[in-house]
Amino acid sequence: QVQLVESGGGSVQPGGSLTLSCEVSGSIFGLNIMGWYRQAPGKQREIVAQKSNDGTTLYADSVKDRFTISRDNAKGNVSLQMNSLKPEDMAVYYCNLRIFRGARWYGYWGQGTQVTVSS
To answer: Which pLDDT band, with edges at 50, 70 and 90, does 26 fall under?
Structure first.
């Protein structure tokens, strides 16, 4: 059973920094992608950043050069360093894991952690 547990959300002023962490437990092998999504009130969930276990990385344009995703394949966790935070970054952030197994993708979500950016 794969489980994802996030931590590190909180409140910060514009221009501040936060680091989100996600610990993944369970059996993970083969091609997989770990990432972060966010959902602001009244908006659809959107991808923020993702990184596969072969190192391929993707960022949303809105966070490029401000956010950095990293993962530790041995420990099974992924983190998101967020710098220069803006009010529009405020949202619930979700950790996501997709595993390719048996010719299909399986997706898993964390419970979400709130990020508030306000002066």
So the answer is: confident
